[in-house]
Design a protein that fits this description.
The chain has 291 residues and is of the alpha/beta class. The chain is built from 8 helices and 12 strands.
Length: 291
């Protein structure tokens, strides 16, 4: 005897198709029609030199290629104040915004990268280590720095032109416990450290950077990039208390900006850019991170 075919398969398949179409519709809506939610790719660079022997070094030739490719693909560099203005007030952003950042405060950010940024119509935010700013020797060890660190006054003309902004990479928490100075990994709490001692340690470091920066550059101090990518919800709450509106990690993940939702500015992801990535490869790499 022939068995009667089950009648549940067709409705179930139809349900799955409708669910998939709904999900695709949500993606299209968020990407093209919902102007209150935008994706923002954030790039992370460090030092620039003619030879890129390390993953954190990019040659000026490659950097120019990358900036040209981004521009050709329709990307427009934005500043941290622009991003904050979008989130707080709904101010417009470019169709394809991108935030370019550089860590540590190397002289090459100004000497090599800034002219290329200016020529290509781009801009970048540099997260400087306060205690190393303008120094020739490491303050703790007394050893010569492996690369020049710029002084805020040297950055000031580029800041005035809107090509460079200078924000915080902490004053003196760009350390690992293995260095033997503070015993702390970045901004993380020490083992056995009390709540109040930890709070004072972070707030004191943030204030030390603010004091050192002072009015030596014209922009407002608004953002911090976590050293070595060490961060926590606890640390981020303290940085918010210290007046940092935006914080950045080294986690490679998309950022979704939402109007009137300040939490989207906390612990933002960044894409590490190396000399091994061509301009076109960078554009392709950013597709999942962009509008």
């Amino acid at each position: 005897m022939r068995q009667k075919k089950s009648g549940w398969k067709r409705p179930a398949l139809l349900f799955l198709v409708l669910l998939l179409l709904a999900q695709i519709g949500d993606i299209v809506y968020l990407q093209y029609f919902d102007t209150s939610r935008r994706r923002l790719p954030v790039l992370m660079y460090h030092h620039f030199a003619d030879e890129a022997k390390e993953g954190t070094v990019v040659t000026p030739v490659r950097f120019r290629e990358q900036m040209d490719a981004l521009k050709e693909a329709g990307y427009q560099a934005v500043t941290i104040p622009q991003v904050i203005d979008y989130v707080e007030n709904g101010a417009p952003l470019p169709a394809r915004p991108i935030l370019i950042t550089m860590d540590d405060g190397y002289g090459s950010n100004l000497d090599a990268a800034a002219p290329i940024l200016e020529e290509t119509g781009m801009c970048a935010t540099v997260f400087a280590i306060g205690i190393n700013e303008g120094e020739e020797y490491y303050p703790h060890s007394g050893e010569p720095m492996w690369q020049e660190r710029f002084a805020f006054e040297k950055a000031a003309p580029w800041v005035e032109k809107g090509v460079i902004d200078v924000q915080s990479h902490t004053f003196d928490m760009h350390q690992l416990a293995s260095y033997g100075y503070s015993g702390r990994d970045g901004v993380l709490r020490l083992e056995g450290e009390s709540d109040e001692d930890y709070r004072q340690a972070l707030l004191s470091d943030m204030e030390a950077f603010r004091q050192r920066r002072g009015n030596r550059v014209s922009t407002e101090l608004l953002a911090l990039a976590y050293p070595f990518g060490y961060y926590s919800e606890e640390a981020d709450a303290l940085l918010k208390e210290a007046g940092y509106a935006v914080t950045f990690t080294i986690d490679e993940r998309p950022n979704y900006l939402s109007v009137h939702n300040g939490s989207c500015l906390r612990m933002m992801g960044r894409v590490n850019v190396t000399d091994w990535i061509s301009g076109q490869e960078l554009v392709q790499l950013l597709q999942p991170y962009s509008n």
